[in-house]
Amino acid sequence: MRIHCTVAILSIxxxxxxxxxxxxxxHMLKMLNKxxxxxxxxxxxxxxxxxxxxxxxxxLEKLLDQGKKVVEELEVALASVVPQMxxxxxxxxxxxxxxxxxxxxxxxxxxxxxxxxxxxKAESDAWAQEINNLKENLFGYNPICDYVKHxxxxxxxxxxxxxxxxxxxxxxxx
Length: 174
Description:
There is one protein chain. This protein is an all-alpha fold and 174 residues long. It has three helices and no strands. It has helices at 2-139, 152-158, 167-173.
């Protein structure tokens, strides 16, 4: 009976060991299934990202090609515009030089005009003064009248005419 007991204990021990091994393998299998599920979702996400990146790469390549075409077109356009710009710049420089010379000429003419106006005003003032002096001599008392014979014509000429001088002539002389 001792053998039976030993065999029974041994079989219980082996069964328990096998049960623990099976339980451990089952637990490991569940963990591996979870890991596989997680890896599959990660794979799907990476596949979507890869697809998105491929689409992005294709669209970027198209944009790059379009950009290169635009650059080539702009280079051709620039080649035709540069001579026109240089021509316009030269015309602008010539125009600015002409503008400067015209401004200098205008300044000298304005200076000459102001000098001429000043000269004319000075001469006009001198002539106005001379006219006023001559009017005073004409209508004023002349000392020569003391030495001439008295007759009606000389009295008329030598008479004080300042009273008969029109008012608008006195305002014109001032």
